[in-house]
Design goal:
The structure is a homodimer. Chain A is an alpha+beta fold. Chain A folds into four domains: 197 residues, no CATH class; 154 residues, no CATH class; 90 residues, Sandwich (Maltose phosphorylase, domain 3); 108 residues, no CATH class. In chain A, 36% of the residues lie in helices and 18% in strands. Chain A contains 17 helices and 23 strands. In chain A, the strands form three sheets. Chain A has a seven-stranded antiparallel beta sheet with strand order 2-6-7-8-13-10-11. In chain A, strands 15-16-21-19-17-23 form a six-stranded mixed β-barrel. At the A-B interface, helix 12, strand 14 and strand 20 of A face helix 12, strand 14 and strand 20 of B. Strand 14 of chain A pairs antiparallel with strand 20 of chain B, so a sheet runs across the interface.
């Protein structure tokens, strides 16, 4: 039975602290960026763009016009979406007023035919819909549709949803009624249209999503021909590599994750969303999932091995120090996982969803919520990272903002909607895919309270306050937990189906799950040349790393995996995260590059969770270590 | 006392076989390429370019005009230079006639004012000397000067030398007499002018070399301003990164090897050549040498860590799989080493010269002399190499030729002039920097015969047939030889001065040197993150590597450095090179990317000399291996 994501989740514990940080710090900070009021950082201008577009439509002088990326509008959309999730659980009148007035501005920037995009409206309305390859109009509409759905769900206010329904109908008119060719150069709107469809039942949204999915790749030369038919480009893209936009073949025939990683996982999410109505998409989704997670994903849940095109490269090409691992790509991987989970409660999806969240997504944000990584390497070497031309993208300090600012607001909306990924439901069951403390209210009437200090502590307790129509709970037992104990209403459960334990519930059922939080050494497949024969430490969902701050030159360390690593308490400078010590040997430093001898001495190596790295100044960092 | 390079060396042994291969196969093959008669390979057109330029000067129709790189002329120059070295030791009437007629063509392509460059003469004479940043006119003149000097020395025919003297005077007139600003965007002519000066005593050549060296970097903005003063470019270079052309500061103030690696080492060679007449250049040469060899050089003597600009990057940034290590750059490093050795017989120079030759330079050519590498990685993974965007430059099979064909003829001329690098002399001494079997005749009257199967065998015997004016021999004892025995005229020598053993000689003196050919594991400094904690096998000057052909997945192997590697005889399929077996363990293959367990089994790993890799089909290859 198909599940739906949960709407009402009031968090506490680890997730609660992160959501509070986003509410108190990240959302206000990001708003100041959008208004160009943040200090010492990249200019956004996104709110001014909407105001200027409205002036353009009114025939007025557009003032300072448009500034920013062709997809600048999407930063406002993601901020509204994050604000919506925040308002759903933390009523905040000032925030709601701020969002309402931004929505008013957006509505004013919509053309009378439903078109909405400040880049084209401010700059050149004749260029509308002529550059699907690079133009990002469908991408921006997609993000704004997501914001509209979230804002209506959170506040009951449907102004933005009406705006975006008109915009969707405009797009429907262009691509379906008028029959104009094409599909998005940057997939995004597909998954957004499916959100709109699920929220409103609007069949045009479904038809549009399906049309974009079905058209893709039927003519691999579409974008090249589109490019040749116009005399302008945004970035000079020639459209000659259709795999870059996942349009080299029809989606049902795609077997390898190619091209721009964010585009890829956004597309696959849209495809997975459509499985309900078209099961012929399922095999491709499963094949692409396996290709990514078995061959093209870092242990941190990062994807996209190269900065060149922010892209997937080849099977088993997973370099640590030049990794791209865009924060948005791991967020998109969570989307894909969640969409697959709705059809198939298999921990192969939820394990990866959790891996991506607790490692790459959280690492994308400084612990104080004020700085953000776009790129999330598994190794950083100040002196090389950020300096060598091959490593320029690997910055050694989180910036405050980006000219291309997709990641920070994406992380904000993801964290604020964590409950939607952690919990789902169908008519008679509730699902716990990830462990998230707090209160959950399901549409099927079930109300659940979860108490846990996870991922620091491995015990998770649930109380079924009311069962409602739910007769069963499905609790994921992670693949990383070598042992577990689960009792439901005093009864021990051991049987698993695709990594999920199923148990009957009723009002008042008490559930206690204990997972195995022993620190573990991970070993890479010898098929992955960069890390074959090396080891990475993890505990629960958290991948650990070794920083120069704690260890001096981490490249001089070789870990002794025969000695059990020891948890050494919580580090206040890392938000209270658990640190772990390992036995190691340290090679003696030398300025001779190559020698016939090498001396080394026993040493201890201190590891911290990967998501906390780079919170104590610029320093060296490694996830994968040599082992004895 | 300053040394000069030896002129007459008739090789046998290992070097003899390579020179014979170049004479019999490489030089004829390359000529067929230059004539566009080679099959299935890149077009050269270089000889036609000269013919067409001559027609342009005669006011005739230029036929199919110019084709190729802006520096296409230099391929002909390097071929003539290689042919000259070949003719010096292997008289060959047909080859000499071929070279003579090419020289006739070149002479006809020279303008009446001495200008010589087919690109500009065929295309647009108004552009002459307006693009020193990219134009390569001085670079091409430099290579042709080198060819002219070599051809005159080898054959006694001075037609090309007269052509190039007129060309040099034309350049002198432009840059010195007329006082036009500028210096080469691609250094090369400096070292060529110094060859001309040493061969002819022409003071204008010396003054021109010195002027170019002294001007460089005095205005770091020179190339940016030059770019802004013209409305055309060759490749779009903006001149905004002066370090790319080593012109960010005056050469005497340069401390780090930056930018395009070949340009860098060609420049430093020119600087070192000038030390005789200007000792203020010495400290910068020594500092730059140390920077390269201690921090920016691969164990194979490869330099230039990145394909992006074919350039140096940062200290200790030495990735194996994305290495550039252009063949020409290691040849240039040998030039720099040899130039430093002329002033200072220190094995720190000759050790590196030998390392570069026996590894990167020789690896640049297939064992049959018919295919060539431009890029010489230390790791190759078919499936990733040549395919991932970051690895596109790492081709997995040597191509027959290149559109940018600098390397193949450069390797040919280097191999054919090996004696000049192996041996030098001053008025009263002869120097053996590298071990090269054959007969050597020095200008000081000494005649030496060297008998050795080096580098397969570690015994080198010299007979002083005649001492001439030489009273001493200086024999390098390599840094890699942990022990050695040297007897000169029956007397054992143990004392070394900067790694050289000095001994008196007279007519008939017999010298016997035995070096330590034990296979050795090398360990990288922990400052080099990519290879810290790893090991590479070497024997004598030869770095070894592990190929998939012998070992299956080499990334699954971990070497046991506690077990002594065993030499396992010679491999006929590798030109008789010695192969070595090491104890290892092999990790079990798995398609699970990350696991908590890993099983492995004892295995044996077979290593071959790096220079012989990729001679048995496309396969995986690694130099640096994990170690137990």
């Amino acid at each position: 039975m198909k599940q739906t994501n949960v709407k009402a989740y009031k968090s506490d514990g680890f997730i609660g602290r992160y959501q509070q940080l986003v509410r108190d710090t990240v959302i206000p900070y990001q708003y100041s960026v959008l208004c160009d009021e943040a200090e010492d950082t990249e200019k956004s201008h996104v709110i001014a763009n909407f105001a200027n577009a409205a002036k353009a439509l009114a025939g007025e002088d557009t003032g300072d016009g448009f500034y920013g990326m062709v997809f600048q509008d999407s930063d406002a959309a993601k901020w509204i979406e994050a604000a919506a999730y925040s308002l759903a659980n933390f009523p905040d009148r000032a925030l709601e007023e701020r969002a309402d007035s931004l929505i008013d501005l957006i509505a004013a920037a919509q053309d009378k035919d439903g078109y909405l995009n400040t880049y084209y409206t401010c700059k050149d309305t004749d260029k509308r819909w002529t550059n699907l390859l690079e133009g990002h109009e469908l991408y921006c509409s997609g993000h704004m549709i997501e914001a509209a759905v979230a804002y209506a769900e959170a506040t009951g206010k449907d102004k933005l949803l009406r705006v975006m329904t008109r915009n969707m109908e405009h797009i429907y008119d262009h691509f379906i009624v008028k029959g104009c060719e094409g599909f998005p150069g940057h997939p995004e709107i597909e998954l957004a249209l499916m959100k709109m469809y699920r929220a409103t039942g609007n069949e045009h949204a479904l038809e549009l999503a399906r049309t974009f999915i079905d058209r893709r790749g039927t003519d691999p030369d579409f974008f090249r021909k589109e490019r040749e038919s116009r005399d302008w480009t945004v970035w000079g893209s020639d459209g000659k590599d259709p795999d870059y936009q996942q349009s080299g073949r029809p989606v049902r025939e795609q077997t390898e994750a190619t091209g721009h990683a964010v585009r890829a996982v956004y597309l696959y999410t849209g495809m997975a969303d459509l499985i309900d109505t078209d099961d012929t998409l399922r095999p491709a989704c499963e094949t692409l999932w396996d290709n990514i997670t078995n061959r093209r994903m870092y242990i941190t849940g990062g994807i996209g091995s190269t900065v060149l095109g922010e892209a997937f490269t080849a099977d088993y090409d997973l370099p640590s120090d030049t990794a791209y691992c865009e924060t948005c790509a791991s967020i998109g991987l969570m989307f894909f996982a969640s969409a697959m989970l709705r059809h198939d409660a298999d921990r192969k999806y939820s394990d990866v969803m959790e891996r991506a969240f607790y490692n790459t997504v959280l690492a994308g944000m400084q612990l104080d919520g004020k700085r953000f990584f776009y790129v999330n390497p598994l190794e950083c070497d100040p002196g090389i990272s950020g300096k060598a031309p091959t490593h320029r993208h690997v910055v050694t300090t989180r910036p405050k903002w980006y000219a291309c600012a997709c990641c920070p607001p994406n992380a904000a909306r993801l964290i604020m909607s964590f409950g939607k990924y952690a919990y789902s439901e169908d008519d008679t069951a509730v699902y716990a895919h990830m462990y998230a403390g707090g209160k959950v209210i399901f549409d099927n009437g079930c109300e659940l309270i979860c108490r846990t200090s996870y991922p620091d502590d491995m015990t998770v307790r649930y109380t079924v306050v009311r069962a409602g129509n739910a007769r069963r709970i499905a609790v994921r037992i992670p693949g990383w937990s070598e042992a577990f104990s689960l009792s439901v209403g005093g009864k021990t459960i051991t049987a698993l189906d695709k990594g999920y334990a199923y148990a009957d519930i009723s009002d008042g059922t008490e559930i206690c799950l204990t997972l195995d939080g022993t620190p573990r050494f991970n070993f890479a497949s010898p098929r992955i040349p960069h890390i074959a024969g090396m080891t990475a430490l993890s505990r629960g969902p958290l991948v650990y790393c070794f920083e120069g701050t704690d260890n001096g030159n981490v490249s001089a360390l070789t870990l002794d995996t025969a000695v059990t690593p020891q948890i050494k308490g919580n580090d206040a400078s890392l938000g209270g995260a658990s640190v772990i010590e390992c036995a190691a040997v340290r090679d003696e430093d030398t300025d001779i590059p190559y020698s016939f001898t090498q001396s080394s001495a026993p040493a201890s190596a201190r590891a911290i969770p990967y998501y906390t790295w780079c919170n104590r100044g610029e320093t060296q960092m490694r996830v994968w270590m040599r082992k004895k």
